[in-house]
Protein: Amino acid ABC transporter ATP-binding protein
Amino acid sequence: MAFDPPIEPLIELRGVNKHYGDLHVLQDINLTVSRGEVVVVIGPSGSGKSTLCRAINRLESVESGAIHLEGRPLPEEGKALAGLRAEVGMVFQSFNLFAHKTVLQNVSLAQIKVRRRKREDADRRSRELLERVGLAAHADKYPAQLSGGQQQRVAIARALAMEPTVLLFDEPTSALDPEMINEVLEVMRQLVDEGMTMVVVTHEMGFARSAANRVVFMADGKIVEDRPPEEFFTDPHSERARDFLSKILKH
Structure:
């Protein structure tokens, strides 16, 4: 009888623990993300969401457990770690653009430094990506001349320029004014439609409902629920999730 072989996870966390002093911020985390999946991580402030996201590309070290990317453990340091961060792109809530460089230079820099592309090739790719996120006309501006939503779209273009295997988003809209949130979510929805593997920490419940394959709900450093969005939002199993949703969905 024919059967489909199991899909090897693109990202796998097994028994991951992390402390900040006495605070046990990640507690025995087990999580897998398959290629092409969109996993949205939600939960109250202080639940460990951002630490989880940052651990996947070793911006945060962990004390125990294992994290694998495409079956390989994350590298500790040096060139291999820089290579990992090219494969695992990250978009932060605070944009992290270089203020003294133009939009084009911001998107091209890591291509030149890490991917070793010629400047003209990097700039060509950067302009293509700026077109894709609706900012081609702003290539020669500096970040301070852009709105927050525009800066975040530049940050997404910069991450895409490295041709990552997976993109991590750490609350990408939380620093934005309400009218700017949708322009960033629209770019993210395009990436979902294109099959990009994504782990998204967010408070945007509409995005979680419509774009996620799975919703991971965290509280007190633990994964409390890991379910498809239609199940999680209509019938949360845990009292902790029910309480969280009753508060956040009223707004």
Summary: The chain is about 40% helix and 25% strand. Confidence is low (pLDDT under 50) at residues 1-6.
